[in-house]
Amino acid sequence: MTISEVSKKYNLTQDTIRYYEKIGLLPKVPRSKNGIRDFDEEACNWIEFIKCMRNAGMEIEILIKYVNLFRQGESTVKERRQLLEEQKSKLLEKQKSINETLDRLNYKIKLYDEIEAGTRKDFTEKI
Amino acid sequence: MTISEVSKKYNLTQDTIRYYEKIGLLPKVPRSKNGIRDFDEEACNWIEFIKCMRNAGMEIEILIKYVNLFRQGESTVKERRQLLEEQKSKLLEKQKSINETLDRLNYKIKLYDEIEAGTRKDFTEKI
DNA sequence: TATTGACTTAGAGCGAACTCTAGGTGTTAT
DNA sequence: ATAACACCTAGAGTTCGCTCTAAGTCAATA
Questions:
Q1: Nearest residue in A to B79, CA atom
Q2: What pTM does this model have?
Q3: What's the rounded Cα separation, in Å, for the pair B73 and B66?
Q4: Cβ-Cβ contacts under 8 Å for A113 (sequence gap 6 or more)
Q5: Quick check: A101 and B49 CB within 8 A?
Q6: What are the pLDDT digits (tens) for B59-113?
Q7: Three-state DSSP class for B31?
Q8: What's the CA gap between B122 and B124, in Å, rounded?
């Protein structure tokens, strides 16, 4: 698979994919004899994994750390588990923040609806 | 309330608070006669609101837009509602991404647990 | 054979959101 | 009165995560 195909498949720019490889986020992307990247299934799986983690806001440095542990083989399973557990709690925190904000947005939207409907005449919005 | 008090109360640096004011995120922070900020309840409420929205990842530009609409008074209620609704869908998207990633992390953590426990001898992690 | 087009690299540039620096003022404590 | 301290400003610098540029290689088509 060429970089342009991968780029379309995962909706990432070619620049981003090259960047990810350069900084060590993609272990062993195969190359054809003239140096052109030829992504196999494993390389695609890594891209998909990295994309998923990045979408949730996981830091690139953490992901590089994970990839490096992965490269070192089975001896790093404990450490990898620990890393993922830490990231999981970070995501749970983030989830909490988002839920709080959603509650707040819903409250305000409801308030604005009432104001528009004229149900609420006292325009004392508490920010 | 001085800036250092506000800084402690909301766990934001003084620099960040000044920055927020400078770029127009904090409508009318009162000042004492020698030019020192003296945050009243409304200013604090704004800080708390901005902090909540920023924690959920809302962009500063959007928040500036909201603040500007707010300043223009009741005539902008419809527009403000619209803006909040848009941000709400963005947050719902983000929530979805996080949930997907959490599922994936849970799956991998379970896998690592099995490997460590020896329940799974075939070390065929699919990334 | 010339040019088009997809790929390659190293490295510069960019936008977002702070964060820090330098230099200054004003109040309080010794 | 002098020093320490909390505040002020403008503007430069930093970090993150890309994104773009310039210059080059190679294969295929006009």
A1: A112
A2: 0.93
A3: 11
A4: B81
A5: no
A6: 999 999 999 999 999 999 999 999 999 999 999 999 999 999 999 999 999 999 9
A7: strand
A8: 6
Q: What is the DSSP letter of A124?
A: -
Please give the structure tokens belonging to residue A28. 């062993």
CA distance B111 to A4: 33
Q: Is the CB of A26 under 7 A from strand C?
A: no
Q: Determine the distance between B97 (CA) and D15 (C1') in angstroms.
A: 24
Tokens at residue A98, please?
């988002």
Q: How far is the CA of B15 from the C1' of D12 (A)?
A: 14
pLDDT tens readout for residues B39-66: 999 999 999 999 999 999 999 999 999 9
Q: How many CB atoms lie within 10 A of CB A49?
A: 20
Q: How many Å apart are B23 CA and C19 C1'?
A: 15
The answer to whether B56 contacts A108, with C-beta atoms less than 8 Å apart, is: no
- Max distance between CA atoms of chain A, in angstroms, equals 74
